[in-house]
Structures
1.
Amino acid sequence: MIRVEGMAMKQGAFALAELSFEVPASQYAVLMGPTGCGKTSVIEAICGLRPLTAGTITIDSQRIDTLDPADRAIGYVPQDGALFTTMRVAEQIALPLHVRGIRGSKARGRVDEIARLLAISHLLPRRPQGLSGGERQRIALARALVFHPRVLCLDEPFSALDEDTRLEMYNVIDTVRARTRVTALHVTHSRTEAQRLGDLVMRLEDGVLTRDTPDSKPATARTQQESPWASPSNT
Amino acid sequence: MTGAAPALTSRRLSNAIFHTSLASLMGVYAVLLLAMLVAMATFTSPADLLRTFESPEIRYATKLSLISCTISAILSLWIAIPAGYVLSRYTFLGKRALDLLFDIPIVLPPLVVGIALLILFQTIPGRWFQDHYVEVTYRVPSVIIAQFAVACAFAIRTMRVTFDQIDNRRENVARTLGCSRAAAFFRVTLPEAWPGVIAAGTLAWARALGEFGPILVFSGATRMRTEVLPTTVFLEMSVGDIGAALAASILMLVAAVVVLGLTRALGMGHPVA
């Protein structure tokens, strides 16, 4: 569960005040809003990449806004994936495991498992250069999920993709949700995307947060089954 | 339709003039450089050059130049990588003043750098350092310090531009994945900055190789002691031995071209996406 209470930020001319919302455990929340409304700032603040001037952020009853980004156990997928250009795909997916002291066959096993889930096993030896937008986002998603994050934050992850790839990625998200049951906050400016993916849709405009009701959703998005990826705690 | 043909001709003529102007202006500098190289290469015979290279003074100067430039370049990188990173990534009080300070050796006349170093090592702390650790003034360490003082400024500028060009979002993503700031730097940012590190090292080495003014003032021009290749050129020219001066110049030219070629080749390994 993500709980944001009285979040306020200020950077230059941009300011956001008194923002509060809650995403229940295992729910997929989508935050919509026009360009420049501050939705990316909200996600960056949750990830610890932008300082708050006021307010608190709680994940699963633990207050995290005072923690370093490394200690928040949040899987973050930025707009273009932000893949590490000097690492092979397998290396960058394994990075969160290595920094947590998980190495060798255990790390390889986890990388293989998440790669199978996201259908990127064939990309593991490759470098990011030359990969398609959809492949890059699958890898970014694998990297964000491999360490069993408590929360997944996605910042307009599909905005640069073509229509077909975007639809394909919606199905990937369905698969991930079905297998991991991770609580997610997804930022987008696309209403279609919000309605397709969100259990909970929020709109941020002029500093005011309102709640939308999503249209009907495919059943796969709510399917829950036990899997190694359903671990509720950070590894 | 009647106006289309003249407009096409006019555009073609404009394009031709534009391309010719670009090629001409670029060509002037290229021709000047080539003419300088050809003039140097044809001024003396290979046999005379080889005979000059056998001179113990030129051999000593070559050896000291190569060693001191390499040490200066390594020291410059040691400082330039963290300094460039701090200037690129952090905001703090006095950042602009520090940035300006690091640019001073770039714009300062070389002789002034030499005088400043000479005076620094005659102050009480400077003398204390020389008395307790190592003799600097007019000795080999002064050559390295003089080269480093100027070369490091160029390396810092290069590293700052390099880090500016690397998107810090990848570093931020690494932090969310569990990396400390240091781990994100060493695992993500520094490997991506590798071509810039190579460029900064090359620039520092080349600057150090050509350094003359500060060395003349701070280290003197003592043969077989603090003589580097630019000093050799100066000393040989002052006694009218153009052949020996040319030999030292050609050595510097060859060394610079070899280092430039090698580092350019090495630096192409990691393209930044």
2.
Amino acid sequence: MSRLSARDWRNLVLVAMALGVTACLPWTAGAYMLSIGVTIAMYTVLATSWSLFSGPTHYISLATAAFFGVGTYVTGIGIQYLPYWTLLPIAGIIGAVMAALVGLATLRLSGVYFVIFTLGLAEFVRQIITWGQNISGTKGIYVLTSIGETHIYWQLLGLAALVWLLGWLIGRSRLGFALRIIGDDEAVARHSGIDTARAKILLFMVPGAVAAITGAILAPRYVYIEPSLAFSPMLSFQVVIMALLGGTGRLWGPLVGVIPFTFLWEAISVSFPNQTTLLLGVCFLVIVYLLPKGFVGLIDAAKKRMGAEGYA
Amino acid sequence: MHQREEKIMKRRTFTRLATLALAAGLTTGPTLAQEVLKVGAVAPKTGPLAGGAAVSYWPNVKLWISDVNARGGLKVGGKTYKLEAVEYDDQTNPGETIKAVQRLVDQDKAQIVLPPYSTGLNLAAAPIYARYGLPMITSTATTDKAQALSAQFPNVFITLGGAKPVVQGVVETMVKLRDRGDIGKKIAMVNVADAFGIELMNEAKPAFKQAGFELVYETSYPLGTQDLSPVMKAAKAAAPDAFIAWSYPPDTFALTEQAMIENLQVGAFFTAVATAFPAYSGRFGKSVDGVLGIGGVNADGAAFKAYAKRHEEVTGAKPDYWASVMVYSSFQVLEKAIEAVGSFDNAAIIKHIKANSFDTVIGPIKFDANNNNPAFWTVGQWQGGVFKGVASTGRDGAVDVLKKGAWK
């Protein structure tokens, strides 16, 4: 790994400062803005970790809801027996192991097969939990804690910082380089001696672990957990669309997708409470047609144009 | 320059005039003196629970506001307020429910926030209601954990009961039929493998055993199972005297249809959620006669009849015979408590709800020490095109349960 340049240091300091400012939100904003803050932080974490894997490899994963749901159940079941802080790493480990198993089974598949498998995974895990409930005879799980929205927000911010740090380190590592080659041409990567399956599995464990931890953090917010709420497939789709809106080519890409999308969603929910789903679908279409490379693509294009003008 | 200013001035005057004209056109005589009070409501309009909310929840929001406004408005401390609904769709997503409640309080400044829909969404929103100190009289949440909930959230009230009393009601009904000689002691019992269905099945098995029944067939099926004919065939092969299904809306319909196709002859046929929906009798017509289901109302009572009539007039749809009237009654409790206290002091309103009995469409509601309404309907039966309550935990107007005849 190469040494940090002056620019790297500057970026690190800027990111740390920005995180510090956003961490003050609970004191500066009302409860409503804080709940939007939680939503933004949650989707930022999920979409960024999602694009760490799906960005370079172009494998569209719809497994977010599966990992997320498992995480909520780790907190839901574990909180009765273990202190809360131990549950987050446990959720992360379970998510990573799950992702590794799924990766072993499916990452040799490519394209649409992988997409369908990951979509089915959430349903599969949900049915297993339902079956477990049927055997044990317990209904939903109550998570009655004193953890409030402020704590959840801070935990999510901390997790976001970790994800960015991890993404930045991966980008500088041999693994990140290997993944970019895989994304460009998997056959070339294999012929260059890269163990493509291993690289993909290792990276797939990141969104798995992160989504599970996110679920574990959010469980106290839901108070009552049942499979249909924990494994909502909508979550997987929202994460994908937000990441695509932002753009997956840059580490900060998903963030610039999550923020406008959250406010757009908010505006739709407020103004058209009877047509939310319809308008959401229209937004999806518009995003895919008009912004195929997301905001990152737009910003890069603008930069290029400005650069070209400068030389002319 | 001068000319341009004049133009702007003209435009401004015109805008003002137009606004005035518009305002004059919109406001009618009496409302001018009245203040408008925003009433927040958040429940599914999309997502898996949208269907149920469209039957039991949303029409009652409309009806209640229309009823209060029709009698002049909500009288609070010498002032009369016209109610105006602010509705949000939570997409059956607890995160959205939480956000919408905060939006209602912080952004829309809604003075009254009605409870959400369903067990899961009510409980997810409970901490937010608690933090704002809002009274939360739930009407569609079923739980046996009223004690733990009221300890954590003293502002939450439960009205629809839990699994234990429902099972008790069904067992008592079956015992009555057996003691009369209408059915034997062999029962077939199935459940949908999801939340409520699982809990009810696990309560019911030991309860029936203790009451001296013999379980000749039992199975569970996953939520969303399309083809229930194997279940019904197997149940019929076991030759039961009574059939009990702890089912959800889609399977309630599917099981009834299969029972008719297989011509299952039992003295008691019970399906759970949605049996009390008007759509159930709409689908099966006269065949529903004698079918037992979860819920019930005092269908012959004057209060319910008047309510059902208004419900149909205002919303264009019939109420269901279980949760609808409870949803409306919980709004009434809130309405009466606010008027009695005479202000929007939520702490005082909650105190008033805890201490008093309220006369509602469903009858008197008085909460116990755990903020739980102990009196609710548990079992109903279709009799002559109406779903009448046959068992309850202390409600008046129960009719005698009848033996089920052949399918028509």
